[in-house]
Design brief:
Helices cover 0% and strands 49% of the residues. It has 228 residues and is mostly beta strands. The chain is elongated, with a radius of gyration of 31 Å. A hairpin with a 3-residue loop joins strand 1 and strand 2. The strands form 5 sheets. Strands 3-5-8-7 form a 4-stranded antiparallel β-sheet, with no helix packed on it. It has a 4-stranded mixed β-sheet with strand order 4-10-9-6, with no helix packed on it. Strands 11-14-15 form a 3-stranded antiparallel β-sheet, with no helix packed on it.
Length: 228
């Protein structure tokens, strides 16, 4: 995979040497050096990443970025000079509230979640990640994160349970009797509220999971005397 070179800077340095010839004539020589300064670059350009608002794994990587120092005849050790920064903007969409954070290791950095996502509050983030090499030359890339609205429902409405369509919290509708039934298998269907790119029919993305709910035993037998 070839990295995407954003740009190169060329600096022309001019040195002036004054030489005297036979102590009488002065010869002016202009010597030009062209020096190439290589900036750090990302392996990927800007892209969009989607996540449901119910995502709450603060340890998992949402997006992983890899960069290279882009120094000619350099060894892998030069990548240890890379410094990653998540640029904080002036709006919530540009991470003003520090919803996301970076965790970096040498030439790799991971964007991770710092706060819960909320579709109703903010539906899209535009994050600027900057990388800088040991010559303090930097490059930037933009990562757009789209937040998907997620709703929940029960597959079988005859089950003695209810579910909050926004939070996914399951509550009970009846008082259970373990002697009658001690285990319930409840299937939950989570659906985002945007048409899926996987289907031409406009159908939404869905995911389902079965939860096993076990009714705990409760001592509902009153004490009794062994003798009258």
């Amino acid at each position: 995979m070839n990295p995407i070179v954003l740009y190169k800077n060329y600096i022309m340095l001019q040195h002036v040497a004054n030489l005297k010839w036979n102590m009488q004539k002065q010869l002016r020589i202009n010597i030009f050096y062209i020096t190439t300064l290589y900036i750090a670059i990302f392996y990927f350009s800007s892209f969009t990443h989607t996540h449901g608002e119910n995502f709450n794994d603060f340890d998992s990587s949402i997006v992983r970025l890899k960069a290279v120092s882009n120094i000619e005849n350099s060894s892998n050790s030069d990548n240890s000079y890379l410094l990653f920064e998540l640029v904080t903007g002036r709006t919530e969409q540009t991470n003003k509230e520090n919803t996301f954070r970076l965790e970096s290791n040498k030439d790799v950095t991971d964007i991770k979640l710092s706060q819960h996502l909320d579709y109703e509050s903010n539906r899209q983030y535009s994050l600027i990640v900057r990388v800088q090499n040991k010559y303090q030359l930097a490059a930037e890339t933009v990562v757009d994160i789209e937040v998907l609205d997620v709703s929940y429902k029960l597959e079988n409405f005859k089950d003695p349970f209810a579910i909050d369509p926004q939070t996914g919290n399951i509550t009970t509708l009846v008082t259970f009797d373990r002697e009658v039934k001690d285990i319930y298998n409840v299937k939950i269907i989570a659906t985002d509220n945007s048409p899926s790119a996987l289907f031409r029919t406009g159908e939404h993305n869905k995911r389902q999971q079965v939860f096993q709910i076990e009714i705990a035993d409760k001592n509902d037998n009153p004490p009794r005397f062994t003798r009258q």
